[in-house]
Design goal:
The chain contains eleven helices and no strands. It is mainly alpha-helical. It starts with 6 loop residues before the first helix and ends with a helix. The protein has one domain (26-247). It has helices spanning 7-17, 22-25, 27-51, 59-108, 110-123, 128-139, 142-152, 164-180, 184-188, 197-220, 224-247. α3 packs antiparallel against α10, α4 (59-108) runs antiparallel to α8 and α10 packs antiparallel against α11.
């Protein structure tokens, strides 16, 4: 006998098999903000080192690196967070405009929209009869029909559930957290290992990229070599470019 499933069964299945953590839900913002934070902050450090900004006062270069490093960290972090906020809002506004237009077309030109739905479904492998029946079912449910047309006809995934304030904040925090790592040697070793601060900054930058890559792997569960390798490799290339740009201004 076929088992009957209740609403509670569906909720329990969703909680057990498909529940996403905060890290999983916002991995895009974490990787985006974290990578940019690491690279742009390291660019300041590498730029000063590459240009050999050294004076007779051994503390001046470190203070200069910290000044420009923290200025970059918070200014660019705020810019990144605000940019993410505005991009999500713009995406939602565009989606709403197109969704209103699609809903109007469904109401005013129903036959054409049903024909389009049938055509789309047939292109996905359904027979003409199956596609026509499904189009009729969609026509009786305006909400799901509009969502279907937005996704399948216009190729626009819904951004309606995204919280622009939260995505902007997470991008900002990821930028600050990971971007601080390349500056750490200059903050804590300036009176002990100041001559080796840049070497430690390179090591810390590598570790930060490694942590970011592992975080990506923990969420996606794809190949660890791909998740970590892509993050470290592309981040390292950007860091090397930043260093060699600094050498162009060598004194």
């Amino acid at each position: 006998m076929k088992k009957e499933y209740s609403e509670l069964d569906f909720k329990e299945h969703l909680e057990k098999e498909h529940k996403l953590s905060t890290l999983s839900t916002h991995i895009r913002e974490i990787v985006y903000g974290g990578t940019d934070g690491i690279i742009t902050t390291f660019a300041v450090v590498a730029g000063f080192s590459g240009a050999q900004a050294i004076t007779s006062d051994s503390t001046l270069p470190i203070l200069t690196v910290l000044l420009f490093g923290f200025a970059n960290l918070f200014a660019d972090g705020a810019s990144m967070g605000l940019g993410n906020f505005l991009s999500v809002r713009a995406d939602q506004d565009l989606y709403k405009r197109e969704k209103d237009k699609e809903r109007k077309e469904i109401k005013e030109n129903t036959d054409m929209e049903k024909a389009e739905t049938t055509h789309i479904l047939m292109s996905r492998g359904f027979t003409q009869g199956e596609a026509a029946k499904m189009a009729e079912i969609y026509a009786r449910n305006e909400g799901p029909w509009v969502d279907f047309m937005m996704r399948e006809e216009l190729g626009m995934p819904s951004p309606e559930s995204e919280n622009p304030f939260l995505t902007g904040l997470i991008t900002f925090l990821a930028f600050i957290l990971f971007g601080f790592i390349p500056l750490t040697p200059y903050v804590f070793t300036q009176n002990i290992l100041s001559s080796h601060s840049f070497s430690y900054s390179i090591l810390f930058t590598f570790v930060a990229l490694l942590i970011l890559g592992i975080s990506r792997w923990k969420v996606t569960r794809q190949s660890i070599s791909r998740s970590v390798g892509e993050t470290v490799l592309l981040g390292s290339i950007s860091a090397i470019i930043a260093y060699f740009v600094g050498t162009m201004f060598r004194q």
